[in-house]
Design goal:
By secondary structure, the protein is mainly alpha-helical. It is about 60% helix and about 10% strand.
Length: about 100
């Protein structure tokens, strides 16, 4: 992916903020961390995550799907779409870089 900083900064904030907001919730980010490694059946995903209920999991998956970060290729199976794998990893890398230097000038 090659995008110039100027092009990135000219993009409408709304759609970009929606993706960041979807990924920004701790439970949803954990779902992305699991799904970026490969598709999971809903039962397997529920077993891997520490969510209080299946309803919570479905709620988070719906939010991630609305943002284009997750898709359901077949009934009961979820994954990060192939075109979104690198962006999800880039979000994780960016978050690590920022979190390692809080308040840095």
């Amino acid at each position: 992916m090659a995008r110039s900083p100027g092009w990135l900064l000219r993009q409408p904030a709304g759609p970009l903020a929606a993706v960041l907001a979807a990924a920004g919730h701790p439970a949803r980010f954990e779902i992305l961390q699991v799904l970026v490694t490969g598709p999971r059946a809903i039962a397997d995903l529920q077993a891997e995550l520490d969510l209080a209920s299946p309803g919570q999991l479905y709620h988070h998956l719906k939010t991630l799907a609305s943002a284009g970060l997750v898709e359901q290729p077949e009934r009961g199976v979820y994954r990060v779409p192939p075109h979104a794998i690198f962006p999800v990893l880039a979000l994780a890398a960016a978050a690590v870089d920022v979190a390692e230097h809080p308040g840095a000038r």
